[in-house]
Write a structure and sequence with these properties.
alpha/beta; disordered C terminus; about 475 residues; Four Helix Bundle (Hemerythrin (Met), subunit A); Rossmann fold; 434 Repressor (Amino-terminal Domain); 8 strands; about 60% helix
Length: about 475
C-alpha cells in the first residue's frame, strides 16, 4: 500500500492532463482546482482547510505569469506543491532539549494510538544521538501496558522505570529523581489513554504535566482515524498546550487527511511519522519531502539518508573494486541484500525514487522472495558462491533441496546474478557505485539512472512477482 495512495493517484492524474496542454485558460485552471478539491475532500481533509487551500491555489494559478507561461501546467503543479508545503509547515520541527537535564518528553493520546510503541521508538532514536534516555511507564490502567514497555525497552537497550501500586503522578516524580541519580539525560513518559477524551483523563495528564514540567508534550494520533485525529488534537491542545504531533500508522493510511489537516487545525507541527511496527520505523516529518511523495516526485533525500545509515562506506568501496575487477561473488550479493533490508520495505524504497513509484505500482514486491534468495545462496558451498559458473544441473538440484525451492528458482537466481553483475559493472564504470549514497544534492540525481540501477534483491523480488502473475493468468 503506497503512502497517500488515493490522494496521490488523483492529483497526479489531474497534473498529467494539465501538462498535456500547451496553453491554459481560466476554465482549465478552474476545472483542475475542482479536481484538486474533490481529491482532498475524499482524502478526508477537513472542509475548511480544503476551502482555504484551494482558494489560495486558484488565486495564484490564474495569474498572468502562469497563463502566459510556456509551461503553464508545470507552474500549476509548483503552486499546488508550494501551498501543500505551507499547509504542513514548510520545514521540519525538531525536538528541543532542556539546557538543564533531564529533558522530559511527555507522550499523550487516546488508547490504541500507539503511545507505548512510539515512546520506545523515540527512545531508540534519541539513544542513537548519544543520549541516555529513560522510559517511564505511567499507564497503570491498560492490562500489560507496563510489561509491553519493559519488553520494548529491553529490545532497544533503554532502561524502563515503573512502580507497583503507585499513581501516575507519583511514578513520574520518582522517575525524575531516578533519572538524576543514574545520569539519564532524557525522560520519556508514556501516559495512559482512554477510548475517548474525558475529564478524568485530562485531570491526570494536567497533574503529570505540572509535576514533570515537560520540555515537549507530544500527541500520538492514529493517522487512519481521519478527522477524529484532528478532533482529538484540538481537545488535547486546548487542555495541555501541545508542542508537537506524532502520526502513527501513516504507512497504512491511503487517504492522509489527518496529516494535511492537523497542522492547520491546531497550529501544532507534526514532528514524526510512524511508518511500521519495527522500532526503527519512525521518520522525522519533513513537509517538503512528504509533499513530493504525495505528488509522485519521489523523495531522494530520505532514500540517500537511509542508504548512508545502512551501507558501510568502506564496504561500498570494496564492492566497487570487486565489480570493476569482475570479482563480485554471491556472498557479496547476500551482504547487499542484508544491507538493503535495513533500509526498510522495498515497496517504500521504490516510492522514494522519482518516476519509479508510479511505474512499479502494479508490481507486487514479495519480501519473502528475498528470504528465498538468501536461503539459496546459503545452501551453496563457499566455492560455488565464489564461482557460480560451476553450478550445473546436479549442483542446482542439491541447492534447491537444501533451500526448499525449485531447480527453476535456482536457475533464475544464477541468470539474474549474471545480468545484474554486467549491469552493475557498466553503471560503476560510468557513475561510481557510491554516487547515490554520497550525493547530498537530490536534484542532481537522474531518476532514470537511479531506477535502472536497482539493487539485485529488488530485481529478484519483482522478477518472481511477474512470474507468479503469469502463472495465475494461465490458470
Amino acid at each position: 500500500m503506497a503512502l497517500f495512495e488515493g490522494l496521490s493517484d488523483k492529483l497526479q492524474a489531474t497534473f498529467k492532463r494539465l501538462r498535456s496542454k500547451g496553453r491554459l485558460t481560466e476554465a482549465d485552471v478552474s476545472e483542475a482546482m475542482r479536481e484538486v478539491r474533490v481529491a482532498l475532500l475524499e482524502a478526508d481533509v477537513s472542509f475548511q482547510v480544503v476551502k482555504n487551500l484551494v482558494a489560495s491555489m486558484k488565486e495564484r494559478a490564474v495569474g498572468a505569469e502562469v497563463l502566459e507561461s510556456l509551461t503553464p501546467g508545470q507552474h500549476v503543479v509548483k503552486i499546488v506543491r508550494d501551498e501543500l508545503i505551507n499547509l504542513l509547515g514548510q520545514t521540519e520541527s525538531k525536538l528541543t532539549f532542556s539546557s538543564r537535564p533531564p529533558t522530559v518528553f511527555m507522550l499523550v493520546g487516546l488508547q490504541g494510538a500507539g503511545k507505548t510503541t512510539h515512546g520506545a521508538k523515540l527512545g531508540q532514536m534519541i539513544k542513537k544521538q548519544g543520549k541516555r534516555p529513560l522510559l517511564v511507564a505511567c499507564d497503570i490502567y491498560r492490562p500489560a501496558a507496563v510489561k509491553q514497555l519493559e519488553v520494548l525497552g529491553e529490545q532497544i537497550g533503554v532502561p524502563v522505570f515503573s512502580a507497583e501500586q503507585a499513581d501516575p503522578v507519583t511514578i513520574a516524580r520518582t522517575a525524575l529523581e531516578h533519572a538524576r541519580r543514574h545520569g539519564n539525560d532524557t525522560v520519556i513518559i508514556d501516559t495512559a489513554g482512554r477510548l475517548h477524551i474525558n475529564e478524568e483523563l485530562m485531570s491526570e495528564l494536567s497533574a503529570i504535566k505540572e509535576c514533570a514540567a515537560p520540555q515537549e508534550i507530544l500527541l500520538v494520533v492514529d493517522a487512519m482515524t481521519g478527522q477524529d485525529a484532528v478532533n482529538a488534537a484540538d481537545a488535547f491542545h486546548a487542555q495541555l498546550g501541545l508542542t508537537g504531533v506524532i502520526l502513527s500508522k501513516l504507512d497504512g493510511d491511503t487517504r492522509g487527511g489527518a496529516a494535511l489537516s492537523i497542522r492547520a487545525a491546531t497550529g501544532c507541527p507534526i514532528k514524526f511519522a510512524g511508518m511500521g511496527e519495527k522500532m526503527d520505523a519512525i521518520e522525522v516529518f519533513y513537509p517538503e519531502r512528504m509533499v513530493s511523495r504525495i505528488l509522485g516526485m519521489g523523495d531522494v533525500t530520505t532514500l540517500i539518508e537511509k542508504a548512508q545509515e545502512a551501507f558501510d562506506e568502506k564496504a561500498m568501496k570494496d564492492m566497487e573494486e570487486k565489480i570493476l575487477r569482475s570479482e563480485l561473488s554471491l556472498d557479496d550479493f547476500v551482504d547487499q541484500v542484508r544491507q538493503l533490508r535495513k533500509m526498510g520495505p522495498l515497496s517504500s524504497l521504490m516510492e522514494m525514487i522519482p518516476g519509479v513509484g508510479k511505474q512499479m505500482k502494479d508490481v507486487q514486491i514479495d519480501e519473502r522472495q528475498i528470504v528465498k534468495v538468501e536461503a539459496m545462496i546459503s545452501s551453496m558451498t563457499p566455492e560455488e558462491r565464489r564461482k557460480p559458473a560451476i553450478i550445473k544441473d546436479s549442483r542446482k538440484r542439491r541447492v534447491a533441496r537444501g533451500s526448499g525451492v525449485s531447480v527453476q528458482d535456482v536457475g533464475r537466481l544464477l541468470k539474474q546474478y549474471e545480468e545484474t553483475k554486467k549491469m552493475m559493472k557498466q553503471f560503476t564504470s560510468a557513475q561510481g557505485v557510491g554516487r547515490i549514497a554520497k550525493n547530498t544534492q537530490p536534484e542532481k540525481a537522474d531518476a532514470g539512472e537511479t531506477a535502472s540501477a536497482k539493487p539485485f534483491s529488488m530485481s529478484m523480488s519483482s522478477d518472481y512477482s511477474h512470474k507468479k502473475g503469469k502463472k495465475k493468468k494461465k490458470r
